[in-house]
Amino acid sequence: MGDTMFGLDTEILGKKVIYFQKIDSTNEYAKRIAFQEDEGTIIVTDTQVRGYGRKFRAWASPKGGLWMSVILKPKIEPKRLPKIVFVGALAVVEALRDLGVEAKIKWPNDVLVNEKKICGILVEGKYSESEIDYVVLGIGLNVNIEKNELPENIRSDSTSLSEVLGVKISIEEVFKGLVRHLEHWYTLFLEGRYSEILDKWREYSAVLGKKVRILSEEGEFEGTALDIDEFGALIVEMANGKREKVIYGDVSLRYA
Ligand code: ATP
Ligand code: BTN
User: Fold this and answer.
1) CA–CA dist 163, 130 (Å, integer)
2) In this structure, are 54 and 30 located in the same domain?
3) Domain for residue 46, yes or no?
4) DSSP class of 217
5) Are residues 124 and 249 located together in one domain of the fold?
6) CA nearest ligand 2 atom 14, residue
């Protein structure tokens, strides 16, 4: 990416951008500095040594990807917070669609192209039932990454922008587009315009109407993904017609 001025035209997000060539994890760094930073500070790096996803599963972060975290301090009721992952997913999908790439959202935190994972989103933070201190919205997007630069066990399920487009593109341009879309959806989120967020999410969803298998620590079940509710939970209809709400957390979703 290079240690340049980023030339962002956003009002809240990216007023300050902290760039590294290499770091453990932008989410970890963001959490370390979140208290003393204003809302909107972005950490971005060329490579991560210990990038991670949910349950601290390793996130491969070679050079050529966009690995970034945004520090947010939304003044909203904490119970509204789970939907913030949708702000990230919508922004990524729209930044990719601007490049002519038809991306879709796999509930809850992945973006897919051609049914392969191109991006993962990880929301962390410090909040209680009554108060939000900060939220870190981490986004990992495979931009110019060749198959052989990713670990062997994830090659068949993942993809990158350069693979899809057949050419390398400027990570900085992708970054700028993404931040612009993030600011748009984050503004709607702050304004409480959740139905617009959920409707767009439905439009870009890769799972609604599909047969899915939900894996959790309590066990597995199959059903049809019907909808998401106002809190972002996935509503799944089981074979016996019973509806289950699956809450964003440690569950995994597979196509059945
Ligand atoms: P699940 O796999 O349980 O459905 P998930 O896709 O959300 O959930 P996470 O644990 O949130 O998985 O994300 C980490 C997973 O992403 C890793 O286990 C690995 O399979 C995959 N992964 C790691 N690095 C990359 C990458 N650069 N691009 C695509 N996928 C990756
Ligand atoms: C997932 O699919 O589990 C989410 C992966 C999130 C990866 C990004 S890369 C930038 C930020 N720093 C991290 O260590 N993780 C997130």
Assistant:
1) 44
2) yes
3) yes
4) T
5) no
6) 51
Nearest alpha carbon, ligand 1 atom 20:
154
pLDDT in tens, 209-225: 999 999 988 789 899 99
Q: Quick one: 199 and 215 in the same domain? A: no
Is residue 83 assigned to a domain?
Answer: yes
Identify the bridge partners of residue 137 per DSSP, sorted by sequence position.
Answer: 70, 123
Q: For strands 42-48 and 17-23, give the pairing.
A: parallel
120/77 Cα distance (integer angstroms): 25
Nearest ligand to the CA atom of 250: 1
Q: What is the pTM of this model?
A: 0.95
Q: Which of 31, 45, 139 to mutate to test the pocket of ligand 2 (most atoms within 8 A of CB)?
A: 139
Q: Are residues 222 and 164 in the same domain?
A: no
Ligand 1 pocket, residue 107 CB under 6 Å: no
- The CATH number assigned to the domain holding 219 equals 2.30.30.100
DSSP structure class, residue 79 = G
pLDDT digits (tens, 9 = 90+) for 19-59: 999 999 999 999 999 999 999 999 999 999 999 999 899 99
Domain count within the chain: 2
Token digits of residue 184: 């748009």
Domain coverage including residue 249: 211-253
State pLDDT tens for residues 85-112: 999 999 999 999 999 999 999 998 999 9
Answer for the pair 28, 70: CB distance below 8 angstroms, yes or no: no
Query: Using an 8 Å Cβ cutoff, are 183 and 177 in contact?
Result: no
Q: Are residues 121 and 149 in the same domain?
A: yes
The CB-side HSE value for 213 (13 A sphere, CA atoms) comes to 6
Domain co-membership, 139 together with 33: yes
Task: Kindly report, residue by residue over 142-195, the tens digit of the pLDDT.
Answer: 999 999 999 999 999 999 999 999 999 999 999 999 999 999 999 999 999 999
